[in-house]
C-alpha cells in the first residue's frame, strides 16, 4: 500500500496546477489554490469561465496497473452518480457539477460546489482562540454538528454505504451546514486491492488494526466509531486512542460536564464493533434529540 499512497502523495504535493487553466469536458477552469490533499489526490479552488467558484478534486492514477486504474475510474464514476442520488435525500451532500477522465494523463477530475473551511480547520482555529482551554467549540454548536453528522451516517447506512473514513477533514462547512464530498474509502480500497487505508483514530480500530485470531471485516459500525471520534475531537481537541477507555478525557483534562454526551462517547468509542451502538441507537440517544 505504501508505494501507491506515497506516489499519490508526491503527485498531490506538486502545485504546478495553481494559476493554470485546465479543460474539463472542454470547459476551462482556472485553478486558484490548493485546498488540501489526501491519499487519492488533491482538491483545488477554481473558477469556471463564467466566474463561478468551484472545487475540483484531481485524482492522479498514473503509476497504477491499467486494470486497477480503470477499476478506480469506474468507482469514482459510480460515486459521483450515488452522490447525486443521495443529494436528493439529504442536504448534507455536495453538489457535483461534472466528472471527467483524461486517459492521456491518467487524471480524473470531479467538479463540485465550493464550500468554506473544514470542520477540522474550524476546530483548530477556535481552539487556538481559547488557547486550548475547555471545549474547542461551544456546547450548542457541538450538539448541532453532532446531529448533522448522525443524519449523514443515517443516510449512508440507509443506502447500504459504509464510509470507513469519516473525519473532520472531510466534513465541509457551507455556512453552518456540514456536507460530505465523497463516499469514503471502502470501494476505492477494494479497487486498489489494499487494506488499512483509513485515518488512524478517526477510522475504527477494526479497519486500522490486525487482531490475532480474527479475520479483518468492516461493517456499518465502523462509522459509529468515527462519529464518536469526531465528537471527542470537538470536545477535547485531540483524537481518542484505541484502548478500552477511549471515551475518557485526555490525561489532565476534566470530563465534559454533560452526562448525555459522555454516555454517547462510551457507546461509540468501543473497540469491539459487536458491542458498539448502531446508528438507530445513536439516533434515539438523548444527546441526539
Automatic annotation (TrEMBL):
One of its GO terms (molecular function) is protein serine/threonine kinase activity. Keywords: ATP-binding, Kinase, Nucleotide-binding, Serine/threonine-protein kinase, Transferase. Belongs to the protein kinase superfamily. Transmembrane segments: none annotated. It comes from Rotaria magnacalcarata. It holds the Pfam family Pkinase. One of its GO terms (biological process) is meiotic spindle assembly checkpoint signaling. Residues 29-288 form the Protein kinase domain. One of its GO terms (cellular component) is kinetochore. The keyword Zinc does not apply. The keyword ATP-binding applies. ATP binds at residue 57. This is Protein kinase domain-containing protein.
Amino acid at each position: 500500500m505504501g508505494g501507491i499512497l506515497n506516489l499519490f502523495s508526491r503527485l498531490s504535493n506538486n502545485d504546478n496546477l495553481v494559476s493554470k487553466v485546465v479543460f474539463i469536458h472542454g470547459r476551462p477552469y482556472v485553478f486558484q489554490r490548493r485546498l488540501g490533499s489526501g491519499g487519492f489526490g488533491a482538491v483545488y479552488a477554481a473558477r469556471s469561465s463564467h466566474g463561478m467558484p468551484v472545487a475540483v478534486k484531481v485524482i492522479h492514477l498514473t503509476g497504477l496497473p491499467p486494470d486497477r486504474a480503470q477499476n478506480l475510474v469506474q468507482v469514482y464514476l459510480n460515486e459521483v452518480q450515488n452522490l447525486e442520488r443521495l443529494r436528493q435525500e439529504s442536504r448534507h451532500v455536495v453538489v457535483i457539477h461534472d466528472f471527467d477522465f483524461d486517459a492521456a494523463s491518467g487524471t480524473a477530475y470531479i467538479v463540485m460546489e465550493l464550500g468554506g473551511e473544514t470542520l477540522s480547520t474550524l476546530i483548530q482555529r477556535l481552539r487556538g482562540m481559547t488557547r486550548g482551554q475547555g471545549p474547542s467549540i461551544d456546547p450548542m454548536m457541538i450538539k448541532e454538528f453532532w446531529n448533522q453528522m448522525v443524519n449523514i451516517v443515517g443516510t449512508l447506512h440507509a443506502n447500504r454505504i459504509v464510509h470507513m473514513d469519516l473525519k473532520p477533514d472531510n466534513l465541509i462547512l457551507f455556512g453552518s451546514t456540514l456536507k460530505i464530498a465523497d463516499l469514503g474509502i471502502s470501494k476505492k480500497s477494494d479497487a486498489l486491492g489494499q487494506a488499512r487505508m483509513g485515518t488512524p483514530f478517526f477510522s475504527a480500530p477494526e479497519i486500522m488494526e490486525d487482531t490475532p485470531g480474527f479475520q479483518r471485516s468492516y461493517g456499518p459500525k465502523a462509522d459509529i466509531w468515527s462519529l464518536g471520534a469526531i465528537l471527542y475531537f470537538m470536545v477535547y481537541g485531540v483524537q481518542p486512542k484505541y484502548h478500552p477507555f477511549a471515551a475518557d478525557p485526555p490525561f489532565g483534562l476534566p470530563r465534559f460536564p454533560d452526562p448525555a454526551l459522555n454516555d454517547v462517547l462510551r457507546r461509540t468509542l468501543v473497540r469491539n464493533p459487536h458491542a458498539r451502538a448502531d446508528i438507530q441507537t445513536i439516533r434515539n440517544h438523548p444527546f441526539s434529540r
